[in-house]
Design goal:
It is a single chain. This protein has 244 residues and is mainly α. 50% of the residues lie in helices and 11% in strands. It has a three-stranded antiparallel sheet. Strands 4-5 form a two-stranded antiparallel sheet. The mean pLDDT is 87. InterPro entries: Znf_RING, Znf_RING/FYVE/PHD, Znf_RING_CS, Znf_TRAF.
Length: 244
Amino acid sequence: MGYDIERFVGYVNEGLLCSICRDVLEDPLQAPCEHAFCTVCIHGWLVHHSNCPEDRQMIDVSLLRPLYRYMKNDLNRLQLHCKNREYGCEMVCSLESIDRHERECEYSQIPCSNAGCTVQIERRNLDGHLAVCEYRSRECPNGCGYTILSAEDTQHNCVAELRTELELLRSEMICRVEEAKHEMESRLDSQRRHMVQKESILQNEIEELKSQMSRMMSDVRSLMAAERQHRQELEQAELEKREL
């Protein structure tokens, strides 16, 4: 939908009106036949039709293009009233800057920021409303630290709130202790499994070293026996040499 033509100051060229809603173009697109439309209007039209609503020429979404620059400039220069005129805003500005103004307009109706409050209030009056809003929150004046709503003032009981808070903290502490306990048990189990695995590896290494030691002792005994045999042969040879 376009901008309500009644909001504009002075004459608005016919070429700057949407061919569907007949209001001033908003986010405009142009067909090959040069008729212009609001984006929302032409997209809605093409859901059920395949031609231009003005001259019935065949068009497709892919053929739509942005408005010519000179037309876009003319459109942006149009002067119009703020949409909050009925609430007292007297601002008149160009179409190019109207959105920026309306986002910051002091007469805009905005919702109260307090949770649960459904009041719509003018931006300029928001601070005053927040000061008296029944859904406003504040810290307990008795020093318990609890945040209360004004509507709950008469029901607020510091002792009960502190007891509830204490129970919550106690429950949270128990949960944390249990979590820490489970985590420590898990770590201990992991370390225990690691130690058992390490012990098994070390035991295998010890057995392998024992086996190697046994083979080495066997080799030493064989070498000693060979040495004795060799010495005996030398002694025999020496005797034979003497006899000769």
